[in-house]
UniProtKB/TrEMBL annotation, chain A:
It holds the Pfam family LUD_dom. This is Lactate utilization protein. Coiled coil: none annotated. SUPFAM superfamilies: NagB/RpiA/CoA transferase-like. PANTHER family: LACTATE UTILIZATION PROTEIN C. It comes from Microvirga puerhi. InterPro entries: FTHF_cligase-like_sf, LUD_dom, NagB/RpiA_transferase-like. Residues 125-221 form the LUD domain.
Length: 223, 479
C-alpha cells in the first residue's frame, strides 16, 4: 500500500468510516461550497468614516505610520516628503500596478525603478488589494503588479490603500478575492501585513526590523 | 514506528533537577512569567467575542477532524490543480527521504528554513547535513539555538531559555569574519547582525522549507504566521518551496482559518494579529515576477491518524500557540528542555507520549500540579489536565511506574478506602505538623518528602484538616 493510501486507510479506520458515506461527503462538500462566515467581531462593523478611523488606530497600534491624502495625484510628493523626513535616499521600487505607475512621479526627484526586489532596494511601494479595520491589517496579492518580494526585502515599505477598499473584517476581503480570482481560486500569495517586521526572541524584548521592513508606512487615498 | 527518536524525556526528573539548579536558566524563565500572561489577558479583554471565538475555533477543528479524510482529498486536489505536488509520509523516516529527494532534484547546497516544529519532530536538519546539504534556520530564535546545537525550549519562542549575553557569545564564536571588537551589548545590535548574516543566506538558498500553521482545503493553500518575515523570505526567494505539515493542520475554508486566526496571536503573544499572515497556493504563475517555481507539500502522519477516535483525539485540535506553557507553573520552574523532546509544557506532556510512547514519556503527564490554567487559556479548549490524567491511568495500568510509587499509591489507597481511618490519620498528621512547625510557619525539610522540600518550603498546617473545617463551617452555616 502506498503511503498515501495507508494514511487515508488509518484515518478512516480510526474514525470508523469508509469514506463513501453520502451524508458525510455532502456535509464536507457543502461546507467547502458555502464557506459559512462564523462569528464576526462587532468591532469593525462600522460606517465608512468610522471604519477608516478604526483602521488607522489599529495600524498605528501595530506600529505602522499612517497618512491620508485626498487624491492619488498627491502620493508621489507625500512619499518624497516621507523619505526626506526620515533621512532616507530618494529611491523607490515598485511593480507595474497601473494605479501606481499612473501617479505623477516625474513631479518629484525620486529615482523610480520597477520590478521585484533582488535584496538591495531600501524603499519600495505597493498598492494594497484591501485592508481590514478590525486589526489594522493590509492585504496584498502577488503578481507583476505588486511583486511579493517588495513586501519583505526593502527596509522601508510604503503601502497605498484606497479608502473604499478598507473593509471591516477579513471575510469581506475574502469575498473580494473570490470575486477577482473565482471561487476556490487564489493568487499565488495573499499577504496580510499588520505593522512592520519584529522579533521578541532575545529576552522577550520587542525589536523592530527583524528580517522584513523596519518601517511600514500606510498611505490612505480618498478618491 | 520506524523512527529514531533522540528524546531525553525518560530522564525528566534529572533534567528538571538540573534546570532548577541552573541560575542562568531561572533568570531567563522570569521573562516567560512576566511577559506572556499579561499580554494575553489584555488582548482577550479587548475583544468581547474572544470566548465565543474560542468555542468557534474548537468546533471548526472538531468538525475538520471528523471529516479529515474528505478535507485531505479536497486539499490534495486543489494543490495539484494549482501546479503543486503533494507527498504523504507515514512517519519521520519517510518525510526525511521525500525532502532529501526534492532537495537533491533541485541540486540544493543550502536550504533556508522557517520555524517548523514538525521539522524538529522529524529531525530534518541532521538528515540534510549528513547528506551534504546545509540547513539554515532563519527565525531569530531558531537561528540562535541552531548555532548552539540545541532544541527549541518553547514552541513559539525557541530561545526563551537564553539571555542576551549568551547570544552575544555565540555570535562572536560563529560570525568570525566580523570585527571582534564590535559592540554587541544591546539586543538590537544582535538583531541587526543576525539580519545581515541571514539576508545573504536567504538570497543564496536553493530550497526553502517552511511549516504550516494551517492548510486550507477549499483552495489548496498553506498558511504561515510570523512576526519577523523570515518565513516569507524562506518561501519566495528560492526556486523550490517545501511545505512540511502534519495532517491535522487542515481546516475547510478561508472563513474557518480567519476564525481561528482571531484567537491564535492573541493567545500566543497577545498581539491582535501577527505581523505576517501569508496564504500560499502553488508555484509562481506565468505572469509572476517572483516566487518559487516548484511548490511541494509533505503531509506527515507520524502517529496522528492513530490518535483519532481515542481519548487523545482532542489533542489534534492544538494550534501551537504556546499559551498552555506560558501559564504552566511546572514550565515556569523547569523550562522547555527538561521535557526532553520537541514539545514542552502541558501540550507536550499530552502529545509526546502519543508520538514517542508512554514508556518513554510517562514522566511528562506526571509533571503537573493539575492547577488547570492550561485548559483555561487554551484557544481551542483542549482539556489538557484530563488528557494528562488519561496518560497517568495508562501508565499505572501498564505497570510503568516505579515500585516505590506504586506502593505509595497502594498505601494511600488503603486509607482512602477507609474514610474513618483516613480522617483519623490525617488529623493526627496535621496536628503533629502544626505543632512541630508552629514557630517558623514552614518546613524546609520533611521526612519522606525531601524531593519536594528541596526546592520549596512546606507551609505549616493550621492544625485542622480540610474535611474537619468543611464539616465545621457547614454546621455553622446551617445553624
Amino acid at each position: 500500500m502506498s503511503a498515501r493510501d495507508e494514511v487515508f486507510a488509518n484515518i478512516r479506520r480510526s474514525l470508523g468510516v469508509s469514506g463513501n458515506e453520502t451524508i458525510r461527503r455532502q456535509i464536507a462538500a457543502e461546507r467547502l461550497e458555502r464557506a459559512p462566515k462564523g462569528l464576526i467581531p462587532a468591532r469593525g462593523q462600522l460606517p465608512a468614516e468610522d471604519r477608516l478611523a478604526m483602521f488607522r488606530v489599529q495600524a498605528e497600534a501595530a506600529l505602522a505610520t499612517v497618512t491620508e491624502l485626498n487624491s492619488a495625484a498627491d502620493v508621489p510628493q507625500a512619499i518624497a516628503t516621507f523619505l526626506r523626513d526620515h533621512n532616507l535616499p530618494a529611491t523607490l521600487r515598485m511593480g507595474n500596478d497601473l494605479r501606481l505607475t499612473a501617479m505623477p512621479w516625474a513631479e518629484t526627484s525620486l529615482e523610480i525603478s520597477h520590478g521585484p526586489s533582488q535584496g538591495a532596494d531600501l524603499n519600495a511601494v505597493s498598492h494594497a488589494f484591501g485592508a481590514v479595520a478590525e486589526t489594522g491589517t493590509l492585504v496584498t496579492v502577488s503578481g507583476p503588479e505588486n511583486p511579493s518580494t517588495l513586501n519583505f526585502l526593502p527596509d522601508n515599505h510604503i503601502v497605498i490603500v484606497s479608502a473604499k477598499d478598507v473593509a471591516g473584517d477579513y471575510e469581506t476581503v475574502w469575498n473580494k478575492v473570490r470575486f477577482a480570482f473565482g471561487k476556490g481560486g487564489m493568487p499565488r500569495t495573499v499577504n496580510w501585513i499588520t505593522g512592520p517586521s519584529r522579533s521578541g526572541d532575545i529576552e522577550q524584548t520587542l525589536l523592530l526590523g527583524a528580517h522584513g521592513p523596519r518601517r511600514l508606512h500606510v498611505v490612505i487615498v480618498r478618491d | 514506528m520506524a523512527m529514531t527518536v533522540h528524546a531525553t524525556s525518560p530522564q525528566f526528573k534529572q533534567n528538571a533537577a538540573r534546570a532548577l539548579a541552573d541560575a542562568q536558566l531561572q533568570r531567563a524563565l522570569g521573562n516567560v512569567k512576566q511577559g506572556f500572561i499579561d499580554k494575553r489577558q489584555k488582548a482577550a479583554d479587548k475583544l468581547p467575542e474572544f470566548e465565543a471565538l474560542r468555542d468557534a475555533a474548537r468546533d471548526i477543528k472538531n468538525h475538520t477532524l471528523q471529516h479529515l479524510d474528505l478535507y485531505l482529498e479536497a486539499y490534495e486536489e486543489k494543490v495539484k490543480g494549482s501546479g503543486g505536488h503533494v507527498h504523504f509520509a507515514r512517519d519521520a523516516e519517510e518525510a526525511r527521504a521525500i525532502i532529501l529527494s526534492i532537495c537533491r532534484e533541485a541540486g540544493a547546497r543550502t536550504v533556508t528554513k522557517g520555524k517548523s516544529m514538525i521539522s524538529e519532530e522529524i529531525e530534518i536538519n541532521a538528515h540534510l547535513e549528513a547528506n551534504g546539504i546545509t540547513p539554515v534556520e532563519t527565525d531569530l530564535g531558531e537561528y540562535i539555538i541552531q548555532l548552539r546545537h540545541e532544541m527549541p525550549s518553547h514552541i513559539i519562542a525557541p530561545a526563551v531559555h537564553l539571555n542576551a549575553t549568551q547570544v552575544e557569545q555565540d555570535f562572536r564564536r560563529v560570525h568570525t569574519n566580523l570585527d571582534p571588537k564590535r559592540d554587541l551589548s544591546e539586543p538590537v545590535q544582535l538583531l541587526t547582525e543576525a539580519r545581515a548574516v541571514l539576508r545573504e543566506r536567504f538570497l543564496a538558498a536553493d530550497v526553502g522549507i517552511t511549516g504550516a500553521n494551517f492548510l486550507v482545503a477549499e483552495t489548496g493553500t498553506s498558511v504561515i504566521v510570523t512576526n519577523e518575515g523570515n518565513g516569507d523570505l524562506t518561501q519566495i526567494l528560492p526556486k523550490t518551496h517545501i511545505v512540511l505539515a502534519s495532517i491535522e493542520k487542515l481546516v475547510p475554508t478561508l472563513e474557518d482559518v480567519s476564525q481561528i486566526l482571531r484567537v491564535l496571536a492573541r493567545s500566543a503573544t497577545g498581539q491582535e494579529m501577527s505581523v505576517y499572515t501569508t496564504f500560499s497556493t502553488g508555484p509562481r504563475r506565468s505572469a509572476d515576477a517572483d516566487g518559487p517555481q516548484n511548490y511541494h507539500v509533505v503531509l506527515l502522519d507520524n502517529g496522528r491518524s492513530a490518535m483519532l477516535g481515542t481519548d487523545f483525539e482532542e489533542m489534534l485540535r492544538c494550534i501551537r500557540c504556546g499559551a498552555c506553557m506560558n501559564h504552566c507553573p511546572v514550565y515556569h520552574a523547569v523550562g522547555g528542555h527538561a521535557y526532553g523532546w520537541v514539545y514542552p509544557g502541558p501540550m507536550g506532556a499530552v502529545l509526546t507520549p502519543s508520538l514517542i510512547g508512554v514508556d518513554k514519556a510517562g514522566h511528562l503527564p506526571n509533571a503537573s500540579t493539575f492547577c488547570g490554567r492550561c485548559e483555561s487559556v487554551c484557544p481551542v479548549r483542549i482539556p489538557l489536565p484530563k488528557l494528562m490524567r488519561h496518560w497517568r491511568e495508562r501508565e499505572f495500568e501498564r505497570h510503568l511506574m516505579p515500585a516505590t510509587f506504586r506502593s505509595g499509591l497502594a498505601f494511600w489507597g488503603f486509607f482512602a478506602k477507609r474514610p474513618a481511618l483516613y480522617r483519623m490519620a490525617t488529623r493526627a498528621a496535621m496536628v503533629t505538623l502544626g505543632f512541630a512547625g508552629r514557630r517558623k510557619g514552614r518546613f524546609t525539610w520533611l521526612p519522606f518528602a525531601r524531593g519536594w522540600t528541596k526546592y520549596r518550603d512546606f507551609p505549616t498546617p493550621q492544625g485542622e484538616t480540610f474535611q474537619a473545617r468543611w464539616r465545621r463551617e457547614r454546621k455553622g452555616r446551617r445553624a
